[in-house]
Specification:
- With about 1350 residues, this protein is an alpha+beta fold.
- The protein is about 40% helix and about 20% strand.
- A hairpin with a 5-residue loop joins strand 21 and strand 22.
- The N terminus is likely disordered.
- The strands form nine sheets. Strands 6, 7, 8, 9, 10 and 11 form a six-stranded antiparallel sheet that branches. A six-stranded antiparallel sheet has the order 14-13-12-17-16-15, with helices on both faces.
- Helix 13 packs antiparallel against helix 14 and helix 34 crosses helix 39.
Length: about 1350
């Protein structure tokens, strides 16, 4: 037979065939063998035997017959092997064949291999199943046996035969006959009986007859194996194992049979399955792993166990059907290794004891340091004194202080305290004494409250070991050791305890001998002193010299850092000083063998040391360098070089790094020959050169590092330099010279001070200051300086850029070992590009700021210059209308003439003149009203432009104040009342019931922004309605506690802009739900309406409904865009609903807040004051024109201003505005004093009653933009004079009257001291109302 091929090892049962005691061989099949076939032709029988197991090769005769048959291939047995069909005259079936009185079974694997196994039993497999031999001859056809197989299948379930392949038997069917052991395994009969008791039908494997042939064959092999083996079969990985493995399962057997791997090993299944996956992929056995775990014994206690295992896949037809897990118990080996190591460590430590007392201490210390502590869960050590009568406690482990098991002192002769009786027995026997809880020798009452070490389980057994130096001497100590509770006290454990006792005995003997040697030495010294005294007179000088020499040598040997030792001709070291032991780490034993010294030498250096000893035989003097291991307990510092060696501290070398536990030693050896020519003594001197080595290596490393740094400096993109404190350059790279514009020279020959010659003069002071700070603070400094060289660069367009070279210079001090700064080093980083870019950005920023400032100035100037004439236009138009209205009344009222009797009679005017004059007057009034409307329209355009400027600059903010919303709406309504009446539009205003139901009187909101939106919507409504057949415009005002939406409103709101820049002023706090109110306004007209396309383009900047809108109606396209932004800034929205020909409805809502009590009271007071003003000014509109025309400034019959305003100082530089305002105020019933600028105003104040003059001053109207001195400066001067007490009386009310309408300008005026601001253009009633309100508020404030 030949060696097995690679393909066969993939089957996974190769190892099992080797261990199978049955003769077995394997044949390679080249034709399909799944079904029987007729007798093969010679060309078909190419099957070759490829393998025979050891059992077959051992049976030489049987092996030779099988080989001979395989060659001839002309017999019934070989035909049965190759085809599976026995011949007509053969003794066999498709499942078995009788050859050489041996029953053979045939198993096909992968359709490639035929496994032929023998069974030495006397029964055929069919007979084994029936329970006995058939009544007919064996040579008969097996068909007769089938007729009896079913009836006799259960007749003998305990037959001593091993079941073979049964899947091919038709007669057996699915009847489960169980496993039947063969004759060569009689000892496993009980285990097979356990297997047969398992209900396999309930497992994934099913009943026995249905098991695959490969599983049966594999299980047969496993059962015959003496090693613990597990089979995991099928997708569920069902567990099968042999009797050897069941002994490891202990209490879990036989419950693991038939279980899946997850159920069998829940703690290890993941690791097992991972190994299975790996081996299944590789198609070969996995690596061996070892487990440390605890087996549960029959009594439920755990037992410490070590097992090695591997995974072998079972492969058939390229499919992995299962896995085999052979297991090896390595517990004894691992425990022996652990305990042996403990004994070695214990011996190494105890030999260092110099006396018995230190011996006990080291023994306890080593037992405590032993790892792991599983074998020493408890230890109690007593020293025995007074001939064994007294025991003194020397130490214990796991015993708390004061515990009764270990009293400090025991009187063994008459005491039973603790374990005294057991200690007496141990002293008597002088052998290890076992104590057990179960027999009472170890009292369980003494085991409580102990701190068990190791597994922390309570020990049930303990051993008392007597310790004595030799068998002839008495016991000096007693050691009580608790036994590992998870290991039995078996032979291995007993051997370990015995070895421990021997180790203690030998080490104690060494210590005792050492003590005895020291005592003997002292006795010898005393005897020598006595002899010396006797010979003192004769040998005084010689003894003195010898003594001095010995003392000097001893002193030198003990104090010098050189290790010295003497050795004899055998190499044993007889003397060594402490330095020698520290350097080598060799144990301090005398004598020390060469092997003891060599054990300290590094393995790689041992051949060098041995060659040095050989060289010493020839030359008598040898010098060698080698390395030794530093002991773990070596706490001595490394020896620094002395004498003329360089200072490592000054050199800056770090020699404290970890040396890997190795010392470098330089040794000098000198030998002395005796008279016979042989070496009789060797002197060795060892020097620790570890730091010399490290210093040399560190110096080389630093030199390499310096070279690397130098190379890096030359390749760096920054200028690097080293400079003396006086500015002299010590070294620099090429970039530094290029930046400074210097040529590279030899700095050792030529002195260069680059900072003095290359830095711009203006930056030298800052540079010098930085260097002074560097020296004073001894810290790194930085500075930005300019060099005299120019920086040039080419931009993306190819243009050359030239700019001053800016560098960021860093300065780092370099100190010597005394901390004194000698030089400084650093680098120059070129930041010219960043500086150039920064300068460009700064220029762009300045240009943008200047552009914005000019834009704002232009807007302010335009607004100011447009508002000034508009104010005069509106006021003059009001005056014209007033005068014409008065003339109209005179025309319609006939003049009265006195008659002769003194009575007054009315004379009628000619009708033609009356009618024509009335028409002219009416047309003139209409023209004046048109002028006012145009001026108002012009004012709205200016307001829109100013608002857009603020929106573009993101400067527009919302400033809520406490106001009456209805009054704000009425103000907007009154602004358009005259214009609506003029174009015959029915303009109405309605307050919805939802507003009154909320009991709203005042709210916090921005009235100017609200009015601006209303004005924009009313302007559009009137503009698009004035030409229609039906001319109706209505304003509806409502309120709600919830935010309006499309469902609650008649319009569709435009989605709000998400950009937070449009939100209200961020300084205001969020509005609470109980104080939040949503105000909604609807402006509905009957104009032409809007299409869907036109509505989609609304609310956009400079966009109107269509291209014809501007031609027909005019406008800028800003009104709705601004309205949308203003409503969104007030947390609201705007929307529209419109249909062509049906008019439009524009609606918007804003968020308002209920004011607090203080603000409410102030608003109430201001409203009451305004009401008084309005009542006092009820004569403004008398007669017919009162309800139709604007406010008229005809000469009143009654004073309009209250008594609190008798005189007004008007400060205005525009003569037209000055004349008009002065006239209107005088017509209102007050005295007016005029000033052209601020300086003149201050002079006029000196003539008022506030400064002792005659003019009754009650209020100042202050223009802002004026020559000589502007209004804000004048106001500040007035307030300063008031604080100084220059003016008498209360605070002078000052109202700023200006065309500057931006909010920041208004706030600036109030900050300067103005009490309120009135923006041009304004109408006289507005001025009078503002004057009355300001004086009333200041009067109330006192």
């Amino acid at each position: 037979m030949m060696s097995p091929p690679m393909g066969l090892t993939d089957v996974g049962i190769f190892d099992l065939l080797d261990s199978d005691p049955r003769p077995t061989f394997v044949v390679a099949a080249t034709t399909p063998t799944s079904t029987p076939s007729p007798a093969p032709t010679p060309t078909e029988t190419s099957n070759n035997p490829t393998y025979a197991n050891p059992a077959l090769r051992k049976n030489t005769s049987l092996h030779e017959k099988v080989v001979e048959l395989s060659r001839s291939r002309r017999n019934c047995f070989w035909d049965w092997i190759t085809t599976g069909c026995p011949g007509p005259d053969s003794r066999g079936t498709a499942r078995w064949f009788l050859f050489e009185d041996i029953y053979w079974t045939r198993v096909v694997i992968r359709n490639e291999w035929l496994v032929i196994s023998s069974n030495h039993g006397g029964l055929s497999p069919d007979e084994a199943v029936r329970g006995g031999p058939p009544s007919h001859n064996r040579g008969h056809s097996h068909s007769h046996s089938h007729s009896h197989s079913h009836s006799n299948s259960n007749s003998n379930s305990s037959s001593n035969n091993l079941l073979h392949e049964v899947t091919g038997s038709v007669a057996l069917g699915d009847v489960d006959h169980g496993w039947i052991p063969s004759d060569f395994m009689p000892e496993q009969e009980s285990f097979v009986h356990v297997i047969n008791t398992v209900d396999w039908a309930t497992t994934p494997l099913g009943p026995f007859p249905r098991w695959p042939a490969l599983l049966q064959q594999t299980f047969n092999q496993v059962l015959a194996d003496s090693r613990p083996i597990v089979i995991y079969w099928g997708e569920k990985l069902t567990t099968l194992y042999n009797e050897a493995f069941s002994k490891l399962c202990v209490s879990k057997h036989p419950g693991l049979l038939g279980k899946s791997v997850e159920e069998a090993w829940p703690d290890f299944c993941d690791k097992i399955k991972s190994a299975m996956s790996t081996t299944a992929l590789k198609r070969r056995a996995g690596h061996v792993e070892e487990w440390h775990f605890f087996v549960e014994k029959a009594d439920g206690s755990p037992e410490e166990t070590y097992l090695k295992w591997s995974i072998i896949p079972i492969i058939e037809k390229n499919r992995c059907l299962g896995f085999i897990q052979p297991i090896q118990d390595t517990t004894s080996m691992r425990l022996w290794e652990r305990r042996t190591k403990m004994l070695i460590d214990l011996g190494d430590m105890l030999v260092t004891a110099r006396d018995v007392k230190s011996y006990w201490t080291k023994l306890i210390q080593e037992l405590e340091a032993c790892q792991p502590t599983y074998d020493i869960p408890l230890a109690i050590l007593y020293s025995v004194e007074d001939e064994g009568k007294v025991c003194q406690l020397e130490g214990c482990l796991g015993v708390p202080e004061g515990h009764p098991i270990a009293p400090p002192k025991l009187q063994l002769d008459d005491s039973n305290l603790g374990l005294a009786s057991s200690f007496r027995k141990a002293l008597e026997s002088q052998n290890p004494l076992l104590l057990q809880v179960r027999d009472g020798s170890l009292p369980e009452s003494l085991l409580g409250a102990l701190h068990w070490r190791g597994f922390e389980d309570t020990c049930r057994e303990a051993v008392i070991c007597p310790i004595r130096p030799t068998k002839e001497e008495r016991v000096l100590g007693l050691l009580l050791l608790g036994l590992n509770p998870r290991r039995p006290y078996d032979n291995d454990y007993q051997q370990y305890i015995s070895l421990l006792g021997q180790k203690l005995t030998t080490t104690l003997a060494s210590t005792v001998l050492l003590e005895e040697e020291a005592r003997r030495g002292r006795n010898i010294a005393e005897q020598a002193a006595y002899d010396q005294a006797m010979l003192k007179e004769k040998l005084t000088m010689q003894t003195k010299e010898a003594t001095e020499s010995v003392q000097k040598f001893q002193q030198i040997a003990e104090f010098i850092p050189v290790g010295m030792c003497f050795g004899n001709h055998r190499g044993n070291i007889q003397f060594a000083n402490d330095a020698w032991h520290r350097i080598t780490g060799a144990p301090q034993v005398n004598p020390l063998s060469p092997g003891g010294f060599l054990s300290c030498v590094i393995e790689e250096d041992k051949p060098n040391v041995e060659r040095a000893y050989e060289e010493l035989q020839r030359t008598l003097t040898v010098t060698i360098e080698f390395r030794v291991r530093r002991p773990v307990q070596d706490n001595y510092p490394l020896q620094y070089p002395i004498g003329s060696s360089p200072s490592f501290e000054k050199a800056g070398l770090d020699l404290d790094a970890d040396d890997g536990g190795v010392r470098h030693v330089l040794g000098s050896l000198k030998a002395e020959r005796g008279p016979d020519g042989n070496i009789n003594q060797v002197l060795a001197c060892l020097t620790d050169v570890t730091l010399h080595k490290k210093a040399a290596e560190e110096a080389i490393r630093k030199a390499q590092q310096a070279e690397n740094l130098k190379r890096m400096a030359e390749l760096a993109t920054v200028g690097m330099y080293d400079m003396a404190l006086d500015g002299r350059l010590l070294g620099a790279n090429n970039v530094f010279f290029e930046m400074c514009g210097l040529e590279r020279v030899d700095l050792s020959l030529i002195s260069i001070k680059p900072f003095e010659t290359c830095v711009v003069e203006d930056d030298l002071p800052a540079l010098k200051k930085t260097l002074v700070t560097l020296v004073e603070e001894c810290r790194s400094q930085t500075a930005e300086i300019r060099l005299k060289t120019q920086w040039t660069e080419t931009d993306t367009t190819g243009d050359q850029i030239t700019a001053p070279r800016w560098v960021l210079a860093t300065f780092m001090p370099v100190s010597n070992s005394e901390g004194v700064i000698q030089t400084f080093t650093g680098c120059l980083s070129d930041v010219s590009l960043q500086k150039w870019q920064f300068e460009k950005e700064r220029q762009r920023k300045d240009e943008a700021i200047e552009s914005k400032r000019q834009q704002e100035n232009f807007v302010d100037m335009t607004s100011h210059e447009m508002r000034n004439p508009l104010s005069a236009i509106i006021q003059c138009a009001d005056a014209v209308i007033g005068c014409l209205t008065k003339v109209q009344e005179l025309v319609h009222t006939p003049p009265a003439r006195p008659d002769n009797n003194g009575s007054v009679s009315v004379t009628d005017c000619p009708p033609g003149i009356s009618k024509e004059g009335g028409d002219l007057l009416k047309d003139s009034i209409d023209n004046a009203e048109t002028i006012i409307a145009c001026a108002q329209h012009q004012k709205r355009i200016v307001d829109d432009i100013l608002t857009m400027s603020k929106l573009d600059s993101n400067l527009l903010s919302i400033t809520p104040i406490t106001v009456d919303p209805i009054s704000i709406a009425q103000e907007a309504y009154k602004m358009f009342e005259v214009e609506a009446r003029r174009v015959d539009i029915d303009l109405t205003m309605v307050v919805d019931r939802s507003y009154t139901e909320l009991n709203i009187e005042f709210l916090d909101l921005d009235p100017s922004r609200l009015k601006q939106v209303l004005i924009n919507l009313l302007t559009n409504a009137l503009k698009f309605t004035k030409n229609g057949p039906t001319r109706n415009v209505s304003i509806t005002m409502s309120a709600s506690k919830s935010r309006p939406d499309d469902r609650s409103s008649s319009v569709q709101f435009i989605p709000r802009v998400a950009d937070v820049a449009w939100q209200a002023d961020g300084t205001s706090s969020p509005v609470s739900d109980e104080n939040r109110v949503y105000l909604m306004f609807e402006v509905k007209d009957t104009g032409q309406g809007l299409t869907e396309e036109e509505k989609s383009s609304l609310f956009q900047r400079f966009v109107q409904a269509n291209s014809k809108t501007h031609v027909k109606y005019g406008g800028s396209g800003l009104g709705l865009f601004i309205s949308r932004r203003l409503t969104e800034m007030q947390n609201g929205a705007i929307g529209v609903a419109s249909h062509p020909g049906q008019g439009s409805t524009f609606a918007f809502y804003i968020e308002a807040q209920v004011p607090n009590e203080e603000a409410f009271r102030e608003a109430r007071a201001a409203t009451d004051a305004v009401s008084q003003i309005l009542k006092s000014g009820s004569t403004f509109n008398k007669g017919k024109g009162a309800s139709k025309g604007p406010f008229t400034m005809a000469k009143p019959t009654k004073k309009l201003l209250g008594p609190q305003i008798e005189g007004v100082l008007l400060v205005e530089d525009n003569l037209i505005n000055q004349q008009i305002t002065r006239r209107d105020l005088m017509n209102s019933g007050c005295a007016v004093e005029v000033a052209n600028h601020g300086v003149e105003a201050l002079e006029k104040l000196e003539n008022t009653n506030r400064a002792g003059g005659q003019f009754p001053l009650n209020l100042i109207l202050m223009d802002i933009e004026m020559p000589v001195q502007d209004g804000l400066t004048c106001t500040r001067k007035i307030r300063e004079l008031e604080k100084q007490g220059h003016f008498k009386g209360p605070r002078i009310p000052i109202i700023a009257v200006s065309a500057n309408a931006r909010m920041e300008q208004i706030m600036e005026a109030k900050a300067a001291g103005c009490d309120d601001v009135l923006v041009k253009p304004f109408r006289t009633p507005e001025l009078i109302e503002k004057m009355m309100m300001v004086t009333k508020v200041l009067e109330k404030l006192g």
